[in-house]
């Protein structure tokens, strides 16, 4: 008996907004990614679009399940994300899930599926189509440390602020987001 061909669903494009939680004013990116994107690749898309350096562990929390780098010897480790595609977990517009980066600083991102679109021929994906504000520096101490950094930027001459300001370059601007730079970083994914 001949083997039946597996029918694959048509590739779609997800318009996704990734927002850093517990931060004011908001920091976010709006992305276009294909439905066949694996979770490890989506992790790198978020890393590059946001401006993170990929120096820490991460986990996706989706419908009460955790996906990440699995340790088969640790029963508490997340499920293996390697073969999971977005099409397996995204089933509707308006769906939300979490992406957590750096368990120490605990950067929690809300991932919102804004739209499910048809694939446009001739377009390359992933794309960042909009965003607001610069990504916090790595190892700044999570949202509380980032808030301290923003306050230190307001009065850099104070002695207590000098060490905290060493984390960032002199020209770092928390309000700046460069869309073309984000897309350039996405070409490496």
From TrEMBL:
Pfam families: PRiA4_ORF3 (PF07929)
InterPro entries associated with the record: MM3350-like_sf, Plasmid_pRiA4b_Orf3-like
Highest rank taxon of the organism: Bacteria
TM annotation in the entry: none
PANTHER family cross-referenced by the UniProt entry: LEXA REPRESSOR-RELATED, TNPR PROTEIN
Name under which the protein is recorded: PRiA4b ORF-3-like protein
Lineage, uppermost ranks: Bacteria, Pseudomonadati, Thermodesulfobacteriota, Desulfobacteria, Desulfobacterales
Residue ranges occupied by any Plasmid pRiA4b Orf3-like domain in the UniProt entry: 12-180
């Amino acid at each position: 008996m001949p083997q039946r061909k597996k029918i694959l669903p048509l590739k779609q494009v997800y318009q996704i907004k990734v927002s850093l939680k517990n931060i004011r004013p908001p920091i976010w990116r709006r992305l276009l990614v294909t439905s066949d994107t694996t979770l490890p690749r989506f992790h790198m898309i978020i890393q590059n679009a946001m401006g993170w350096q990929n120096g820490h562990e991460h986990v996706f929390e989706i419908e009460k399940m955790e996906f990440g780098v699995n340790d088969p010897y640790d029963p508490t480790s997340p499920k293996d994300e390697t073969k999971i595609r977005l099409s397996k977990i995204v089933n509707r517009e308006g769906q939300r899930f979490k992406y957590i980066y750096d368990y120490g600083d605990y950067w929690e991102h809300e991932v919102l599926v804004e739209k499910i679109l048809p694939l446009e021929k001739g377009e390359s994906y992933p794309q960042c189509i909009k965003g607001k504000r610069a990504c916090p520096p790595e190892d700044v101490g999570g949202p509380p440390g980032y808030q301290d950094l923003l306050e230190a930027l307001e009065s850099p001459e104070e002695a207590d602020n000098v060490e905290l300001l060493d984390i960032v370059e002199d020209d770092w601007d928390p309000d700046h987001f460069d869309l073309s730079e984000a897309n350039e970083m996405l070409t490496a994914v």
